[in-house]
Fold this protein.
Amino acid sequence: MGKEQRCGGILFKEVRKMGKGLRRFVLGLVAVGMCLALLLSSAIPVCEAEPVEKVVKLGMRASLTGPLAGTTLWAHNGQFDYVKWLNEEQGGIDDIRVKGVWEDIGSREPRAISAHRRIKESGAVIETESLVTAAELTTPAQQRDEIPLFYMAGFSTGMLTKPIRWTASAYPGFAAEAATFMKWVKENWTEERLPRIGMIIINDRAGYSTEEGSQFAGEVGVEYVGYEVASVGCIDVSVELLRLAAKKPDWIYAGAYGAAMVTIIKDAARLELQKKGINFAAEAASVDEIVLRVAGKAGEGWYSMRIHPTYLDTHIPGVMLVLEHAKKYRGLEPEEVAGHYLAGWAETQVMVEAVRQAIKK
C-alpha cells in the first residue's frame, strides 16, 4: 500500500502494485508443480475521474530468427495470436487486458539472460521460453526475481528449484520421451534378439537431455549402441550418420530441430540408410509440418513422437477455434497451419489460466 490521498472528500489509499496483495499459489501443469507470485503492471486509479487501464503483462522470450526458428517461430505465432484473440473476443482476463512483451533471442541461448532482465523491468508477471538451454540459464533468476517461467517443451533437471518450483514445462522430460520411444520399439519387436537403438542429437541441452533417456535401455529391454552429436546449424551430418550406421542399429532416434533436423533427414535419405534396414524416428518437437515441407520426399518413412495435435485432429476440443483464427489473423488454410502453432496457442492459454487463478486468490 502507498500514501493516502483525498478525492472528492473521500480518503483513498493508493495501491501502486496489485501484485503485492496476491498470494503464492500452486498450479499443476502436466505433473509439474508451479508457484507464482504475480504483479499487475498498472496502478488501481485513486479517483474515478482519472481511470487507468489495468494491464497484465506476459513475457515471451522468443526465437523468431536463427537456425532453430523453423521449429520455434510457429509456436510463437500461436502465442501472439492467442493473446490477440483473448483481448478482442474474451475481454482479456476478467476485463483486465493482456499484453505480450516479447524479446527475440535469435536462437542464441545466452541472450535469454538479458532478455529476462528487460522483461522483468517491463513489469511482466510470468515468462515463456522455447529453448531448453535458455530456460536452464535463467531458472536461478526466475527464483530470485519470483517470476515463474513456463518452458514450452520437455522438463530437464536444470530447471528444478527448491523448495518452490519456479520453472514448469509443457510436458515431461526429453529423457522420459526417449524411454517411451524405446518401450514402443520393444513392444512392437518380433525378433528373438534385442532391438538395437542409436541416437543423433544436436549440441544443445535438449539434445543431451534426450540422450539421457538411454539409461533406461536395459530396463526397457533394448540394446543401446551409442549416439552422435551434430551442431545446431549443421549443413552435413554424413560422417555422424555413417558412424552410427556402422554400429548396425535397427532404429536411429533424433533429437534435433529446425535446420539441423532438415539436414539429418536429407542426409539419411541421400545415404540410403533406410534401404539398408535402418528405421528413423524423432523427438516430438523435431519433425513437424514445416520440417517435412522443406525435406520433401526425404522425410517419407520417418516416425515421430507426438505431444500436441495437428490440423487433422479437429475432434479435439479447441482445434477448430485455433484453425479459424489462423485463417482470420494470418490467412492460412488448415493444411498450412503447423502443429507448433496449435501448441503455442494452447500453452499460452494454460499460462493465462495460471494468471487468472492467481488474480482470484
The two ends are 18 Å apart (CA to CA).
